Amino acid sequence: MTVKKQIHLGAHFPGVNNTTVWSDPRSGSQTDFASFVHFAQNAERGLMDFVFLAEGLRLREHRGRIHDLDVVGRPDTFTVLAALAAVTSRIGLAGTINTTYNEPYELASQFASLDHLSAGRAAWNMVTTSDAFTGENFRRGGFLPREQRYERAAEVVAVTRALWDSAQGDSSGTGIEHHGPHFDVRGGFPLSPSPQGHPVLIQAGDSAQGRDFAAATADAIFTLHGTLEAGRAFYADVKARLPQHGRSAADLKVLPGVTFVLGDTDGDAHEEAARIRRQQVSPQTAIAFLEQVWGRELSEYDPDGPLPDVEPDVDNVSITRGRVRHARDPRAVAQEWRDYAAAHGGLSIREVVIEKTGRQSFIGTPRTVAAQMDEFVQRDACDGFILVPHLTPGGLDRFVAEVVPELQDRGSYRTEYPGPTLRDHLGLRHPHAPLTRKESA
Fold it and tell me: Where is this region: Disordered (predicted)?
């Protein structure tokens, strides 16, 4: 009998993104600790690998005003995860912390402390930021040219790992001595080895630089892809990069971020999904997305009318400060949107934005969604998913109650946790364990 690949699941806490639907009467607080507890404990009941907190270092501005999808209220990541460690027992605790604005020694201490407090369940989602707008909140400005972001990130991770490693067997107390282009660090590490050796490292990125960085350093990569074929291509590409870094395919889990909508019938689910997308993309939000591509003030355009005939202003792409949604040539994006609108019967601005800015989504009955997810994993489009629900804090409730049992019935999802640590959940080696003969082949 063939043993099926097991699906890994993480859960992204909703609240700071363009997915959360605040107008839904079931929507709750994104700052009340009870919301975090509900979400994390439900994910743990669903035997998920980890819960995942996003990062927001500055409120984004669109044409000089706070963007209407941004929210005031982002509790400190380490504070929330440490508190969640006390009210959960198995679920992994993943936090997004920037490599551009933080120091290796601080990061090593904070994540090792969380790993100790949670008995081996800590994870670090490593991200970079290139914009000076965010850096204005930091003493040194924080701005780095795009090409230097990953250089600094690689050095941050290397020094952080060296500090963790020094705790493994450094009885001299001298610790490490590092001199590089970004950091000079010399000294001992104040903590004993944490339960996982190293907290799990997650990398968010789809670019060629991001893929290389993940292949060299990460245990999991948080990615985006819209189709089974695109997922398989990404999966094959990233896994093929691992051997040059002395790593095996099992050492890096590919976990795309996905949404889901459940219904009693597939038709009901698709109707609900359409309703949710219209809530996520209001008329005002559609114009804001459009302005980010066109680099122009377009408030006079009707969201239910056609796309503009005017060409994008290529010198004013960053009309939204704090986040670049479209790194590609805006003229190419605009033409792609026009072609898409024409090919689908003349879609309006809002309809195009709804279609072109959504995540990969699984829609249908719990059985249908389970089958769709299973196909992606069994056909090597990914190793699992990071679920991005649209409701805070109950967005996982029906998934845990109805989809998880379907996945278990298919033989592709665990019925109990395999061990106490997040590395156990993800099937990852201890950082200092050698490759087996099978893994290195």
Answer: 413-441
Nearest one of 230, 289, 299, 288 to 258, comparing CA atoms: 230
Nearest-angstrom CA–CA distance, 111 and 143: 24
Spatial CB neighbours of 238, under 8 Å, sequence gap ≥ 6: 211, 214, 215, 221, 252, 254
Give residue 59's pLDDT band: very low, low, confident or very high (50, 70, 90): confident
- Supply the pTM of this predicted model: 0.90
How many Å apart are CA 245 and CA 223, to the nearest integer? Answer: 20
Task: Count the helix, strand and coil residues of the chain and give each as a percent rounded to the nearest 5.
Answer: 40, 15, 45
pLDDT of 436 over the 60 cut: no
Burial of 377 (0-12, 13-18, 19+ CB in 10 A): buried
Q: What DSSP line would sit under 405-419, residue for residue?
A: HHHHHTT-S-SS-SS
Q: How does pLDDT run across 61-88, given as a tens digit for each residue? A: 777 776 655 566 689 999 999 999 999 9
How many Å apart are CA 368 and CA 362, to the nearest integer? 9
The pair phi, psi for residue 407, each rounded to 5°, is -65, -40
CB-based burial label for 302 (10 Å; 0-12, 13-18, 19+): exposed
Establish whether 194 is an annotated binding residue. Answer: no
Residue 179, amino acid: H
CB 196 within 8 A of CB 122: yes
Q: Is residue 303 scored above 60 in pLDDT?
A: yes
Asked if residue 321 lies in contact with residue 61, where contact means CB atoms within 8 angstroms, the answer is: yes
What's the CA gap between 340 and 342, in Å, rounded?
5
Residue 96 assigned to a binding site: yes
Q: Can the peptide bond before residue 431 be classed as cis, meaning omega within 30 degrees of 0?
A: no
Domains along the chain with CATH numbers: 8-265+361-440 (3.20.20.30), 282-356 (no CATH)
Residue 251 DSSP label: G
| Long-range contacts (CB closer than 8 Å, 24 or more residues apart) made by 336-339 | 337/293, 337/307, 338/307
Would you state the torsion angle of the CA atoms of residues 274, 278, 281, 287, taken in this order, to the nearest 10 degrees?
120
| pLDDT of 345 | 95
Question: Would you state the structure tokens that stand for residue 350, as one six-digit string?
Answer: 């809002």
Do residues 76 and 128 make contact, with C-beta atoms less than 8 angstroms apart?
A: no
CA atoms in the 13 A half-sphere facing the CB of 270: 4
Q: Is 118 annotated as a binding residue?
A: no
